[in-house]
Amino acid sequence: MNKVIKVSEKFPYPGPRFIKLGPQSGEAFKMYLYKQLKDIYGETFNDNLNYKVTINLDQTIGYGSSFLEEGFGGLIRMGVPFNIVNNIHIISNEEPELIGEIKEYIEDEKNKHA
User: Fold this and answer.
1) In b/e form, how buried is each residue of 58-88, taking b as 16+ CB within 10 angstroms?
2) Edge-to-edge, what's the strand order for the sheet holding 89-91?
3) Which has the closest alpha carbon to 29: 41, 16, 40?
4) Given its phi and psi angles, is residue 83 left (phi above 0), alpha (psi -120 to 50 degrees) or beta?
5) Do the beta carbons of residue 68 and residue 35 sit within 8 Å?
6) What percent of the chain has pLDDT over 70?
7) Distance, first Cα to last Cα, the chain
8) How many other CB atoms are found less than 10 A from the CB of residue 18?
């Protein structure tokens, strides 16, 4: 099974890190992803582990590093297991360098909580 999350459908104009700083924030994106992941993997993130989540970053106006760090690194801070976050398949044909950047945010956050 596969769930594709197209960021541009909910966050076409990715904004600042926190909700208090403006609309379409990384914090709001993180909360949206958290809910999607809980719906798939359950309260303890132990259900449907064969499910594949794909996030398509294309067709927005672009991303600030704080939006991406809060959105992906923030999932680890919220208690989503590293293996779930790290196994999210990311599509970014428009800016392929974002994939490596996001993987670094996830890895950095994992190392802080190791």
Assistant:
1) eebeebeebbbbbbbbbbbeeebbbebbeeb
2) 2-6, 52-56, 89-91
3) 16
4) alpha
5) no
6) 100
7) 30
8) 13
- What the block records as the tokens of 56 is 């398509």
C-alpha 113: how far from chain center:
18
70, two tokens = 């809060």
Domain parsing of the chain, residue ranges: 2-112
Q: Distance (Å, rounded) from C-alpha 12 to C-alpha 15?
A: 9
Residue 8: both structure tokens together: 């541009």
- Token code pair at residue 112: 């802080």
Task: Give 56-78 pLDDT, tens digit per residue.
Answer: 999 999 999 999 999 999 999 99
Amino acid at position 15, single letter: G
